[in-house]
Amino acid sequence: MSHDPAPAPGPGTPRVPPLPEAEWHDTLKAVAAATGPLNIFTTLGRHRELFDSWIGFGSMLLLKGTLSGRVRELAILRTAHLRACEYEWTHHHRIGLDAGLTEDEIAALRLGLDEHPWNEDDRAVLDAADELNAHGTLSDAAWTALAGRFGENELIELVILVGHYHMVAFALNALRVQPEADH
């Protein structure tokens, strides 16, 4: 008898499928009513206790944070690019446009940072996202650039935001959460 592991699912096959609507719990029903039945939610919703805690935290960062929508989406989209998370990129592309980013700016987030004329404020945020991705911390120069633009709460939130979206990208990529048919 062979003890070889089962073959891994293909890249277009979720490792954990979305929860069928008939099995949605109250929190998942409420989220789906507000956002639509997005696969990120219907997949992570399989772990009810974790989902219930996570959705509040994620919603705070996305909807009630101290960072402007522009800063938030620059950081999230750059993180999605750096983590090669197409699901996250696809959803935040639309949100980024709603937050005031242009198509050219969003496209430039997939390039080297010197390949687009970012203003100093945007560049400080993007440099921070890149440093956090590469080193798990910020250099004194990056911190100083941010501290000249943001207050204490915003500084804390930016670091947490980038870390949170790294975690989300890891989960989406590892679980192979698939884009919705209409995206």
Automatic annotation (TrEMBL):
In which residue ranges is the amino acid composition biased (Pro residues)?
A: 1-20
Which InterPro entries does the UniProt record give?
AhpD-like, CMD-like
Top-level lineage group = Bacteria
Task: Give positions of region: Disordered.
Answer: 1-21
Pfam families referenced in this protein's UniProt entry, alphabetically: CMD (PF02627)
Q: Where is the Carboxymuconolactone decarboxylase-like domain?
A: 49-114
Cited Gene3D superfamilies: AhpD-like
This one is known as Carboxymuconolactone decarboxylase family protein
